[in-house]
Design a protein that fits this description.
The protein is an all-beta fold. 0% of the residues lie in helices and 52% in strands. Strand 7 and strand 8 (78-83) form a beta hairpin. The radius of gyration is 13 Å and the shape is globular.
């Protein structure tokens, strides 16, 4: 099994930055990709960014390109999401996800393991 624990969320003003962390434990050797999803009230959970464990491939949603950066520290079994130039539209609960597929999934169904989420609120 794999356990994922997110941290780093909080309340920030528009234009500010946050760095989310996701610590993985358990059978992390079985994972191929990790991603960050977010879900705002009344909306579907959507992929923000994803990265392969080997750090050779990344994906960013159009809304995140140029502002967010996903990275990994395999020595610490941790994936990060650096979020800059935050906007009120970024307000959501952010979830770390991990999967054992050979590719980087873009939908929730392609990730087997999920964290509990961390709230990000951006004020105008």
């Amino acid at each position: 099994q794999v356990q994922l624990v997110e941290s780093g969320g909080g309340l920030v003003q528009a234009g500010g930055s946050l760095r989310l962390s996701c610590a993985a434990s358990g059978r992390t050797f079985s994972l191929y990709a990790m991603g960050w999803f977010r879900q705002a009230p009344g909306k579907a959970r959507e992929l923000v960014a994803a990265v392969s464990r080997s750090d050779v491939s990344t994906y960013y949603a159009d809304s995140a390109k140029g502002r967010f950066t996903i990275s990994t520290d395999n020595a610490k079994n941790t994936v990060y999401l650096q979020m800059n130039s935050l906007k009120p539209d970024d307000t959501a609960r952010y979830y770390c996800a991990a999967g054992g597929s050979s590719g980087i999934g873009r939908t929730t169904g392609e990730y087997r393991y999920w964290g509990q989420g961390t709230q990000v609120t951006v004020s105008s």
